[in-house]
Amino acid sequence: MNEITGRIREVFEHSGKNQSELARCLKVTPSYIWKLLNKDDVTPSERFIDDICEKFQIRKEWLEHGDGNPERPLDRQDEIAKLTADLFKGEKNSFKERLIFALANLDESEWELLEKIAEKIANAKKSNWVSEGISKSEVKTIVELAKISAQIERCRLDMGMTQQKFAEYMGVTQAMVSKWESREYNFTIRTLNEICQKTNLKLFVSLDKPCVKSDYNIVEWESEKVGKKRRDNGYLRLVYDKGAIAY
Question: Which helix (H) or strand (E) is 219 found in, with range?
Fold first, then answer.
């Protein structure tokens, strides 16, 4: 047995495939695979060696001469292909799946915007606070827009619709649905009401003033004078001199 045949047998063994599967994978007959595994006088062709290296991610230098590590490092295309394969093996509607589908729906201008955002992140100074330099109102806006966007996407997925189908249902373009789910689209009240009407969601808008502690009185049980029966019936005593919110 020559050394290259021995290494081919090693590759086949580690692949976990049977002879029929190896034959289909490498587009040869099962009898040829049997000969490689059992006969020592078989010399594989250059093309067959290339096919083995391609299908099993093996370095040709190792397979032919035994030099270095057998595993071939993945290039960018291989990594993308592996990610895609792993994606469809994983949990449905996972973050990775949603991210890939979102990227697939980006137009040219959105890709340019994404590239600029990535550059800003890469060039950003290290900070202990992610929102350093951003006002409180901006932080709140970012959070609220992201929550609205996520709720719309969740609703679409619950309805079992792709972005294209959801766009047809809503009477807008798929590009607009993609913007709605971008986590940064600045919705108008009119748009939100239209979305809620067709998706059975509810919109709440409030401009209430924040609570001020001096506007409230502490409510407590008057344990010294009120017995358990009266406490159970809801008797309370108001204390007006504490200036704090009651719990």
Answer: strand 218-220
| 37 CB burial (10 A radius; 0-12, 13-18, 19+) | middle
What does the alpha-carbon distance between residue 50 and residue 35 come to, in Å, rounded to a whole number? 18
Nearest to 81 by CA among 58, 63, 106, 55: 55
d(C-alpha 83, C-alpha 95), whole Å? 13
pTM given for the model: 0.36
Helix (H, G, I), strand (E, B) or coil at 131: coil
51-80 residue pLDDT tens: 888 888 888 888 888 877 777 655 566 566
Q: CA distances (Å), 16 to each of 6, 8, 91, in order?
A: 16, 13, 24
How far is 179 from 68, CA to CA, in rounded Å? Answer: 49
The span from the CA of 156 to the CA of 181, in Å, is 10
Q: Is 16 helix (H, G, I), strand (E, B) or coil?
A: coil
Length of the chain in terms of residues written: 247
Strand, coil or helix: what is 238? strand
For Cα atoms 210, 211, 215, give the angle at the middle one, nearest 5 degrees.
140
- Model confidence pLDDT, tens digit, residues 147-204: 898 899 989 999 999 999 999 999 999 999 999 998 888 899 999 999 999 998 888 8
SS (H, E, C) 72-129: CCCCHHHHHHHHHHHHHHCCCCCHHHHHHHHHHCCCHHHHHHHHHHHHHHHHCCCCCC
Instruction: Look up residue 194 and give its amino acid.
Output: E
